[in-house]
Amino acid sequence: MPRIVRFHELGGPEVLRIEQVDILPPGPGEIQIRVKALGLNRAEALMRAGQYLESPALPSSLGFEAAGEVASLGLGVDGFRLGDAVSVIPPLSQAQWPTYAEIINFPAYLVVKHPESLGWEAAAALWMPYLTAYGALVDIARAGPGDFIAITAASSSVGLAAIQIARQAGAHPIAITRTSAKVPALREQGATDVIACQEQDLAGSLNLITGGKQVRVVLDAVGGPNFTPLADAMAPGGILFSYGGLSGQPTPYPLAQVLAKNLTLRGYLVHEITGNPAKLDNAKRFILEGLRKGDLTPVIDKIFPFDEIADAHRHLESNQQFGKIVVRIAPL
Ligand SMILES: NC(=O)c1ccc[n+]([C@@H]2O[C@H](COP(=O)([O-])OP(=O)(O)OC[C@H]3O[C@@H](n4cnc5c(N)ncnc54)[C@H](OP(=O)(O)O)[C@@H]3O)[C@@H](O)[C@H]2O)c1
């Protein structure tokens, strides 16, 4: 029987258990995938702890990203063949369509044939980061040449994807990281400037970097007290995407800056893109083309074996990572 990761109670990484379960054949419109690698996301740690947007019914499985081989096809599925190398677009519900398993059934419209040359680990580290960054920066903000784009939690998988996409658009990605530890690596990844926000004055550094032009787009996964200095450094008409709450602290509303500069403060979820078939098609084309041209390259932090899923979650929550944490599944 295939193995799946489940949790029967909410809590820390130790609640994750690997269990053997029967997997049904794929239903109509579904594809069964023999998973080779999974990509980890903050949303899964939050789900396990009972702090995510979605409340799991226990026991629950979890996971948003995976890559593997097509093992069988449900009724009505065409365009795929057994053995195809595929990866999955993050579904709306990770409880309903979890990826932390050796075998998964997935709706065919969320399954993509990726270039085989990519490898399983990179293919499992692809869709959540690039779709999230693409949706905000390209689909909504229309980032382009000359734009200054401030990216918080820059060493997260989404942050690094945003740096690459901003570069591709001809914009200036300014990476914001907590300390100077990851500054050289962020420069190597293409950030035109890097700010260590626990060691430097954030608004002052942003103003210095932009030379008074100010920041047109902010992609913020952190919230908390840094919200105000970010708004301070924004250009009139700028847009601030609030897409995560890593700080865990109350986030002030920068009323004076919003009023004085006509700022747009906007919540954003990747499902705005994945839930819209036309937008999703454009996004897939953009990302696959970026991979082909070499403008986009997933950054993998560390690979864990499936048996060490709890350690992989501990590493995620250590915040030491640079890029995507991946779990490799050995052949059955
Ligand atoms: N809205 C959406 O649709 C969507 C989609 C995907 C992800 N997200 C959100 O995007 C964020 C990144 O997710 P991820 O899975 O790519 O990466 P992740 O593994 O959660 O990112 C970890 C990085 O975030 C930074 N960080 C962690 N705690 C922090 C804190 N308290 N204050 C400031 N920075 C902190 C650190 O970077 P430094 O060491 O560089 O400071 C750390 O290396 C999460 O908040 C996630 O929930 C949202």
Automatic annotation (TrEMBL):
Q: Does the keyword Coiled coil apply?
A: no
Q: Can the keyword Glycoprotein be found in this entry's annotation?
A: no
Annotated SUPFAM superfamilies: GroES-like (SSF50129), NAD(P)-binding Rossmann-fold domains (SSF51735)
Q: Which SMART domains match?
A: PKS_ER
Cited InterPro entries: ADH-like_C, ADH-like_N, ER, GroES-like_sf, NAD(P)-bd_dom_sf
Query: Which residue ranges does the record assign to the Enoyl reductase (ER) domain?
Result: 11-327
Keywords, ordered alphabetically: NADP, Oxidoreductase
A Pfam family in this protein? ADH_zinc_N
Official protein name in the record:
Zinc-dependent alcohol dehydrogenase family protein
What is the species of this protein?
Lacibacterium aquatile
